[in-house]
Amino acid sequence: MIDLSIVIPLFNEDESLPELIEWISRVNRSHGFSYEIVLVDDGSTDSSWQVIQALSKTHPIKALRFGQNNGKSAALNTGFRNTSGEVVITMDADLQDSPDEIPELYNMIKSGQHLVSGWKKKRHDPISKTLPSKFFNRLTRIISGIKLHDFNCGLKAYDSRLVKTLEIYGEQHRYIPVIAKRNGFGKITEKVVEHRARKYGKTKFGLERMYGLLDLLSITFVGKYKKKPMHFFGSLGTLSFLLGFLMVLWIVWEKIHAIYILHSSDYRDVVDQPLFFLAIAAIIIGVQLFLAGFIGEMMVMNNTRKSDYIVEETIGLD
Q1: What integer is the mean pLDDT of 140-169?
Q2: What per-residue confidence (pLDDT) applies to 63?
Q3: Using CA atoms, how far apart are residues 87 and 126, in angstroms rounded to an integer?
Q4: Of 9, 17, 173, 179, which Cα lies nearest the Cα of 83?
Q5: Which member of 69, 122, 152, 241 has the lowest number of beta carbons within 10 Å of its beta carbon?
């Protein structure tokens, strides 16, 4: 097994790739690391793939090209599957992450950490990126209990065992530390890293990251109930069923009390009371939630979920 795998998702970065790959190679050679660079071209429409083909002749590159743009999570997920290093490092392709951080990130993982997340303490980004990031970082800290300042930093280092447990899609790359903790890799820390101003092109991310809130809620829910859906649906179903049943008992008791104890003829029929219909609805909902729980349990037992994407071309892969 080699020392390092550097996974780089990219979309239309033909200008920055030569400089980035040379920089990564220089850093790794100077520290004596055995390494590979795993490039995932996420459906670029410029000449990125041609640049990768040229670079692969002089550098230890593995590369895959998607037929369409599937998003950063898909690119990372596919890249992780094709790594063979003891330590896996991810970085963006736009030269805003500095490869000079690689040696220290590597050493932090080798010292026992499962995940080290970069913290871009001083950022060179437009407000359309910084404001949403501050909001989601604070929200994610509160919900997950993980004390990181920058969950979405592209520069991260991982124990190789961790990346092989990841299955990310949608916008879940923003919450990899949350997923890692859920999977049992709790040694998570951060490192202040240099954030450089973009040298080529323009940013490809902005306010669309607001959709990440839905992924955060999904991860939080699934993390707790993925293996035990009946605990969630069954509990709600039981509560709803009992509530409906108690309401029915109350309605029946009122009628019995009026007829046989008070000997009164002044009472409403059961079906004339709104509470009766609420009780029936609660009972039906309770049964449905129970069934949802059972179906969820069966799905967990038979789950063979895979997230596969069409790969048009590869370099350096068997």
Answers
A1: 91
A2: 97
A3: 32
A4: 9
A5: 122
Please say whether the beta carbons of 118 and 190 come within 8 A: yes
pTM above 0.90, yes or no: no
- β-partners of residue 6 are 37, 89
270-301 burial: b if 16+ Cβ within 10 Å, else e: eeebeebeebeebbebbeebbebbeebbeeee
State the DSSP string of 104-152.
HHHHHHHTT-SEEEEE-SS----HHHHHHHHHHHHHHHHHH----S-TT
Which single residue is written with the structure tokens 């903790």? 181
Determine the Cα–Cα distance for residues 74 and 309; give it in Å rounded to an integer.
8
Sequence-ordered strand ranges (E) for the chain: 2-10, 35-41, 61-66, 85-90, 115-119, 156-159, 188-192, 311-315
Residue pLDDT, tens place only, 27-38: 999 999 999 999
pLDDT for 231 beyond 70: yes
